[in-house]
Each structure stands twice: as structure tokens, then as C-alpha cells.
Amino acid sequence: MASSAEQMAGQLSLGAFGKATELKKRLWFTLGALIVYRLGTYIPIPGIDPAILNDIFEQQRGGILDVFNLFSGGALERMTIFALNVMPYISASIIMQLMTTVSPKLEQLKKEGESGRKKMNQYTRYLTVLLCLVQGYGIAVGLESMTGSIGSAVIDPGYFFRFTTVVTLLGGTMFLLWLGEQITQRGVGNGISLIIFSGIVAGFPGALGQLLEMGRVGTLSPFAIMAIILGGLALIYGIVFMERAQRRLIVQYPKRQVGNRMFGGESSHLPLKLNTAGVIPPIFASSILLMPATLISFSAAGGPAWLQDVQFYLGRGQPLYLILFASAIIFFCFFYTAVVFNPADTADNLKKNGGFVPGIRPGKNTAEYLDYVLTRLTTVGAIYLTTVCLIPEYLIAKTAIPFYLGGTSLLICVTVTMDTVSQIQSHLLAHQYEGLIKKSKLKGRKR
Questions:
Q1: pLDDT at residue number 301
Q2: Which of 43, 79, 127, 396 is the most exposed place for a label (fewest CB within 10 A)?
Q3: Rounded to whole angstroms, how far apart are CA atoms 171 and 163?
Q4: Closest among 412, 22, 27, 413 to 183, alpha carbons compared
Q5: Measured between alpha carbons, how far is 28 from 48 in angstroms, rounded to an integer?
Q6: Is residue 1 over pLDDT 80?
Q7: In whole angstroms, what is the distance from residue 73 CA to residue 58 CA?
Q8: Which residues contact 64 (CB under 8 A, 6 or more apart)?
Q9: Per-position b or e across 29-49, b if 16+ CB within 10 A of its CB
Q10: CA 336 – CA 333 distance, rounded (Å)
Q11: Would you state the pLDDT for residue 31?
Q12: How far apart are CA 205 and CA 404, in angstroms?
């Protein structure tokens, strides 16, 4: 009976999908926009020697370049017009969210509804442009100083090269922001997240090929390859389970008598996710730790012995690096959760609407209870994120498996996939409701 019910549900969803022409248009638009993005990751910046740049990039494997190259879908490695990707916008968004905690003006602006949200988005874009200018100029100067085994990476260095590089990278990032908005409005899913997702997924075939090649040459045994694949599948299952996990707090609303009728008295629930911070903590932790490690690697060659020792201990897979990485993830879990969820505001909103948690007095006591529950949830979520990111990080360092198979990349891919699937289901459900409304109207006319 259960299997037949599942088959009927599958047939119903497939039939609904076949009739949902609006959803199919959205999916085709999303696919076309992502293809445009992937084509742009192969258009190089003018004045770059690709062969020398590839040689330099191979020498700097394991540093911050790998992290940025992961999120840019290989655009940074090829130094294309989308080399910065949408990372400046993400950094600007996070900075603006952090600024709301220290700036009363921005905090008030955040509470003004749609008009405040538009102003916040405008400020975020201004900050994105500023970050693009700074990062683009830094990349241009860095490219001019890079020299491979066969020559300089820049064909004709100078101010004109710096200007064209900054303008090209700025234009590429702003175009991706516009493309992401179009995907969000006219496609399916969050456009910015899908752009990052497609960049990571594009590297999976090459990573799997590299993994199989390591097995062919004898670097990894067939048993080790099977263990890595099964471990990746188990990791994906664990991520799905933990990302869906939530604590539902019962919220009771009192009964109200209006005239001769009684209203209210129903109960609802307040869902608190186990991992409120999402993928922000591992992204920030990786960037913060790999930045000094990469800078040290640039200057350690031919430098003092103590600098080379620091480079060794900050290497990927080393105990000091793993401890610092775990500490940074835990810190950002609590910090970002405190930014995005305010127990005092939530308790105040419940009190204004007449809601209360059974057994807890409204107001201050409810805020303290919400903070207590959220702290316990965030502790479990921080342990989960640390485990997901640390175990693959250790395996990458010890077995030299491709970076794309790391915990951070799988975490991003799984969460974006879950969000996109839920939005597709919402579109299908809306289409079914529209069909029911049309049928009811036709029946009413016939009568």
C-alpha cells in the first residue's frame, strides 16, 4: 500500500510538472542564465599570459587562492572577467549585517520594512563597488609582481593594465549581481546562491576524474577511493538531516470574546533551526585562516627559519591549523546567529500579538528562555559544522584528494539544492491551487 501511494504521489507531481508551463519557463531561464555565467568564466582579462598564470597558480596550491577559485568556478585560476565572482557582494552583505549591530541608524533602517530594505540594498551595492575596486587593484598589482618559471604573468604591466583590470573585474561582478537578480525574479531559487553552486558543481567532474586517476597510478587504493565516495554520500545524508533539524517551540494564543463569539485559543509553533548561521561560518573561517597562510607562503621562500616554521604549522591538516579552523567556525556560528536572530525582539513581537510560550512569562522571561534554547541549538550546530568541515580538511591534507570534495563545498551544494527543490515544490503547489480555483469557477458558472 505504501509503495502504491508513493507511486501515485510521484505520478501526480510529474503530471503537475508537465502542466506547469510557468515553472518550465522559469527552469529554462535559470538554466540559460547559468550557461551564460559559465561561458563568462572562460573569457580572460586582457594582457594576461594564461600559461604562465597557470604555472604560478599550481605553485600556490592550498592557499587562499584555492578557496576563492572554488567559489568562482575556476574563473580565478584562469583570471577571467568573473574572477571576483559575487564574493565582494557577499562580503558587503555580511559587513552591512554586522554594522546593524553597532549602528543605531542602520538598525532602525532595517526595521522600516520594504523602504528600509531597499536602502540597505543600495548601501550594500555601494560597498560592493568599493570592495571590487580595492580587490581588483590588489589583483592587478599582484599579477604584475607574479613571475613564473618562464616569465611574467602580465604581458605589458603599467597603469593602463591596472585600470583595465579593475574596470573588467568590477563590470564582471556587477553583471553577475544583475544576473543573480534576474534568476531570483524570473527563474527558480536564489540567484546568487545558484551562481556559487554552479561554479562548485562545475569542478566536480574534474575532481572525480582526478580521484580516479590517483587510483589508476596507485596513489590511492581502490578501497580508499570507495571509502571516500561512501564517506561523501554519508556526509551528504548527514548535512541534509542536520539542515532540516529544528526545535519547535509551542506558542499559545489566548481566547478572546468579541460579542457573542469566542476567537483565538489556538496554538502555533516557533521553529528554531539547528544551524541558523548556514554556511557563513566555514566560509569566513577558511578565508581568515588561509589569508595569512598564503601571505606567509609568498615571503617564506628564502626568508628566516622561524617564518618557514610558521608556514609549516599553519599548513592544511596540521594540528594548529585544525584547532584554529575549528575555533573560528565555532566563533562565527555564535556571532552570526546573534546577528540574524534577536530573542528580545522575538519575545516583544509575541507579547504584542498576545502569544506566549506555555510555562514562561511573556516579555523578559520569554527572551531569556529563547536565548537559552538558541544557545543550546547553536552549540550542537557549531559541533556539526566543525565536524563536517574538519574531517574532509584532514583527509584532503593527508590523502591529497581534490579540494572540491571538501566539506564546505558539499555543504553549499546540499543547502542550495534543498532550497531550490523547496521553491520548485512551492511553484507546483501554487499551480495546483490555481487549477482547483479555475475548476471551482467553471462549476459555479455551469450552475
A1: 47
A2: 43
A3: 12
A4: 27
A5: 35
A6: no
A7: 16
A8: 287, 290, 291, 293, 294
A9: bbeebbeebbebbeebbebbb
A10: 6
A11: 92
A12: 10
Residue with cell string 580595492: 134
Q: Which is nearest to 92 in space by CA: 134, 137, 123, 67?
A: 123
Closest to 38 in 3D by CA, of 245, 218, 205, 235? 205
Cell of 232: 561523501
User: Band of the pLDDT at 437, cuts 50, 70, 90?
Assistant: low
pTM for this prediction: 0.78
Which residues make beta-bridge pairs with 147?
152
Identical fold for domains 20-202 and 204-429, yes or no, is yes
| Contacts (Cβ under 8 Å, ≥6 apart) of 414 | 236, 239, 240, 243
Which CATH code for domain 204-429?
1.10.3370.10
- Within 13 Å and on the Cβ side, how many CA atoms surround 95? 14
Q: What distance in Å separates the CA atoms of residue 338 and residue 341, rounded to the nearest whole number?
A: 6
- pLDDT above 70 for 339: yes
Report domain extents, the chain: 20-202, 204-429
Whether 102 and 344 have beta carbons less than 8 Å apart is answered as no
Q: Which residue has the higher pLDDT, 129 or 332?
A: 129
pLDDT, position 9: 42
What CATH number labels 20-202? 1.10.3370.10
